[in-house]
Amino acid sequence: MALKRDFVVWHKEAELLRPAKPTPQEIKELSDIDDQKGLRLHFCMVMFYRANPLMKAKDSVKVIRDAFAEALVWYYPLAGRLIHHGPKDKFMVDCSAQGISFIEADCNFSMEDLGDAVNRHVFTPKSSCIKCLALMRCLAQFVKAVGEFAQGASSPSIIPVWRRQLLTAKHLPLRTTYDQTQYGLETHEIDATTMDHQNLVSGSFFFGPKEMKALRQKLPLSQTQPNSKFDLITACIWICRTRALEFAGDETVAVICTMNARDKGPLELRHGYYGNAVVFPAAVGKAGRLLCDNKLSLEYAVKLIEKAKSRVSEDYVRWEVEFMGSKGRPAFLRSRGCFVATDLSRLGFDEMDFGWGRPVYGGTMDGGGSATAITHARYRNSDGEDGVVVPVFLPAAAMKRFEAEMKKLTALEPREVVGIQCKSPLKSAL
């Protein structure tokens, strides 16, 4: 649905919101996963709520401001600042209670005006003066606590656990070694003239019951069912992206999967830990296998993603932590031929309740759009269908090709239709 008019957001000056009570003043250690260069960025989330008549008498800004202040008492490191420590670009947290940035804003549009475009065109505040690390699980757990305080709780239902030292190389001795694909794959670097932020356009792609049925329909009957939504959707986007960017058949392409490793590490990580406990296995293949028949390419892509994810074990977590500690916490590869896929649909942003009920949308904002990263978020569209929405960023010409390929892959078709095999010239290029 197109917007009826240009919308405007008015916002006040940012204020620093401090914990409601005195908190410990100390320096805290980050894990080697927290501190890797690939996570040194702002990760913007947004939640949209419909007006609730039961909340009409309450000042929404005061409710949320007070709830954040109460939550910061329990999550007091978030009100501090990152500081450099040691000679190897190591970050620590100075728990100084300086506060988080809080901005009150208003707008001239309604939910009906936005329609299915709720995750687009959102105001993104600038806060480059505050160094940030992307802490997705931390954010979800923290915001849940904010919602509980907004509804009158005296303490969070999940007591936060810091213990970042558990995911450092000195506490997790190495047992097994793995390849370093996600940190050293040799492929095309980002073309600054076509793949930078200024040259990108965005598109949001919804995967509801019809789209998921169409994708599963294209898998061979012999393949184990059901596949995870993440695997199928990521495979679909990998195929469409490879075709849209017009890779040659013999070029290498990859997708890095962000995986929760809480159940693969120390027991203390499994309840209350609010640091990053994620690892990044990579699925790597030849572009030619993604350029052929939809059925064959989807099967190929799904199997590669499943294989990459299956590698994640306790030993794999140990290896990645040790690798980070010994190699200076390098950024994982993001290039024209490689992108990162993250599943936010299970973190609960679509269930965060501050007293107004569940949000219509809880997920990422367009503000940090990148051609080398995608995120999955839960969403209910204007037809009432529950599904997953994935924002994609590409150069304009590539986006048109991407949309055309997406329509083919998500179109329902009779089971008896047999896909056309890859032509021999393409096979010879693999």
- Give the proportion of residues in helices: 25-40%
Number of domains: 2
Count all strands and give the number: 17
Shape: globular
What is the correct CATH architecture of the largest domain?
Answer: 2-Layer Sandwich
Count up the helices.
11
Q: What is the strand content?
A: 15-25%
Largest sheet: 6 strands, mixed
Q: Evaluate the radius of gyration.
A: 22 Å
Structural class of the helix and strand makeup?
A: alpha+beta
CATH superfamily of the largest domain: Chloramphenicol acetyltransferase-like domain
Q: What is the helix/strand order?
A: EEEEHEEEEHHHEHHEEEEHHHEEEEHH
Low-confidence stretches: 121-131, 185-190, 416-430
Overall pLDDT metric: 80
* Terminal CA distance: 42 Å
Give the class-level CATH name of the largest domain: Alpha Beta
Notes on the protein architecture:
With 430 residues, the protein is an alpha+beta fold. It has two domains: 12-167, Chloramphenicol Acetyltransferase (2-Layer Sandwich); 181-428, Chloramphenicol Acetyltransferase, CATH 3.30.559. 27% of the residues lie in helices and 19% in strands. It has helices at residues 60-74, 111-114, 136-150, 181-184, 209-217, 229-244, 287-291, 294-310, 314-326, 396-409, 424-428, and strands at residues 9-11, 15-17, 26-29, 45-48, 81-85, 90-95, 100-102, 105-107, 200-207, 252-257, 259-260, 278-279, 282-286, 338-343, 361-364, 373-380, 386-395. The strands form six sheets. The protein has a six-stranded mixed β-sheet. It has a three-stranded antiparallel β-sheet with strand order 3-6-5, with no helix packed on it. Strands 1-8 form a two-stranded antiparallel ribbon. Strand 16 (373-380) and strand 17 form a beta hairpin. The relative contact order is 0.19.
